[in-house]
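Field reference: sequence -> structure
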Amino acid sequence: MKFASLLKAEAERVWSRPVLELTLVLVFLLSMSAIQPLISIIPPDRLETEVFSIAADSITLYAETLTLFLSIICAILAALSFAKDYEQGLLQTLLSLPLSRSLIFASKLIAITAPITLLAWATMALSLYLNFYFLPNALIKAILPALPIFFVISLLSYSIATLISLATKRILPSILASSAMVLVLFFVSNPPVGTYGTFGYIPYTPLKAPVMTLMRVFGESYSSIVIEDLPSTWLLLTLSLTYVFVPLIVSYLFFTRKLEVKQ
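Structure field:
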């Protein structure tokens, strides 16, 4: 009950107006722009396969389009959650209550990453359903793998921003540094064509590895840049989780063992 109450309070504070409304509008617009409608006549025996292929293409395009937006939103919210609480003395109040630091850390994590992940995934699913409602099996097969991938992307940005926020303990520096780090990671993962040769390093970058994992799950080749000998799904997934859990574990240990709140 303590965790549920803490989670509810944190979610209401983080997603107060106009954050929720603006996020909902932006995510819905991104999803509508990425979904590819069925514009050609397809033979009935190939319809389900073709719909799945179009849906998979739309989801991967949406994931790539959403990566930067999702990452910056999570980074800003995480920076506000920790740095703002520290500056305003709210952490001191929370830590004075009969609550463990692990519980506080978990409530902040879930209150930020779960809503933004579900919001991004649900708007994408709705957009696909409006186009391909007549083949629900193909839609479910395409939509379900995207949910954990969106969560990994959100969690990566959250963990980086949390670590920066705990280190700086100031709102503006935390937001600027977290956003800058996300932008650096994004542009490293999306270099201008022709700049870096074969782009063989791209699947191994923090923000691209989750998207490449999704493409591997769908059995697609990477359409934007041709890369031979693409890593396996398990290697990409392991790499993505490593990028997430290293800063997340460091942040957790720092918050639970080393963080000193001002008196």
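Note: DSSP finds ten helices and no strands in the chain.
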